Amino acid sequence: RVMADLASYEVLTEDLGGDILCSQISAKEGTNLDDLLSKVMLQAEVLDLKANPDRDAQGVVIEARVEKGLGTVASTLIQRGTIKVGDSFIAGEASGKVRALIGFDGKTRYKEVGPSFPVNIVGITGLPEAGDLMVVAENEQVARELAESRTKIARERKASSYQSGLMESLAGLFSGEQKERREMCVVVKADVQGSAEALARSLTELKLENDEAEVGIKVLISEAGDVTKSDIAVASVTPDTTVLAFNTGANAAAMDDARALGVPIEFYSVVYDAIESVESRMQEVLSPTPEGEYVGAAIVQEVFNIGGTGNIAGSKCQDGIIKKGSNVRVMRGDKILIESKVRTLRNFKAEVDQITTGDECGIGLLDYEDFEAGDIIESYVVNSK
């Protein structure tokens, strides 16, 4: 099936008479990995792909993380040149001096590594992002100045983007087309920087909206490492901020501060679980549910106009009970239209005090008549404090 799909995009493998090498592998099962590597080596030889080891090193950051006792560690694939212990380098907005080169087994240490070699680099100030280019610099001062320059440029871009968004918001506001914008703030911590970036990017792309408002996500922090006291302090400044810990933990001091300040910390190992949890809270921000204990709900099936009484919602009780005089909210889709009280409650022609699951009834509310078929009338009891 995969081969056929590729062929539909004019990508023909050797098995189908094309010139593109193909190896059917499974990273999970470890199937055909040797075949894949041999084909990669063959292709490199045919294309005469070579790298010069006798030059300053250049590579790409695969991921970055914070490890106890080592500080920031960047898993890097050297593309060309040779990197040595003691070399100064820059990676994105981070810079540093190589204190150690550690193999992917976590034990082997090297004095230098050359092209096509994956290695963990220790000695970085800051936290580079996955995909950042790592380049050896002339000295530590040059590397630091370059990193500061890149940080300044990135800050200016963010400021420019913010101003542009602000101008668009103001233009929409004055034109009367702007919806109310609500934000939900989160702090993202993960085991590696790549995971933190991926989760933060997915969250910032989430958008929910209705006729009146739209809700987006604002990521206050997106970093690798355990949840710390400083993360809790940042989260506590903005009300209702949640800390998301992905494949990482929280130290005891952070947990104590979180409990004292009422900052929730949620732990996840699956990205989709974190996203679903955030989406459900966004829905609550978009259409806040009034405080109260749920009692029952009815669905509007038809709307009747009763002379002198107004519109009555011909409904069927789906769950629980609904009482005459009880507090209700009318919901249309994910939007709460109004909160009101039950003015009249009829079962057939008789006025009744309550209805239960399965009963058909006519519901009249105080100061509201704009019912539509499919609306949900939800009854609740206000909690006493």
Task: Name its key features.
alpha+beta; 39% strand; 385 residues; six-stranded antiparallel barrel; six-stranded antiparallel β-barrel; 22 strands
Explain this structure to me?
With 385 residues, this protein is an alpha+beta fold. 27% of the residues lie in helices and 39% in strands. The chain has seven helices and 22 strands. Strands 1-2-8-5-4-9 form a six-stranded antiparallel barrel. The chain has a six-stranded antiparallel beta barrel with strand order 15-16-21-18-17-22. Strands 11-12-10-13-14 form a five-stranded mixed β-sheet, sandwiched between helices. Strand 5 and strand 6 (109-110) form a beta hairpin. It starts with a helix and ends with a strand. The mean pLDDT is 84.
List the helices and strands and how they pair.
Elements: H1 2-8, H2 33-46, E1 58-67, E2 71-80, E3 83-84, E4 88-91, E5 94-102, E6 109-110, E7 112-113, E8 117-125, E9 133-136, H3 140-175, E10 180-190, H4 193-204, E11 207-209, E12 213-224, H5 229-237, E13 242-246, H6 252-261, E14 265-268, H7 271-286, E15 293-306, E16 310-323, E17 327-332, E18 335-347, E19 350-351, E20 354-356, E21 360-365, E22 376-381
Helix pairs in contact: 5-6
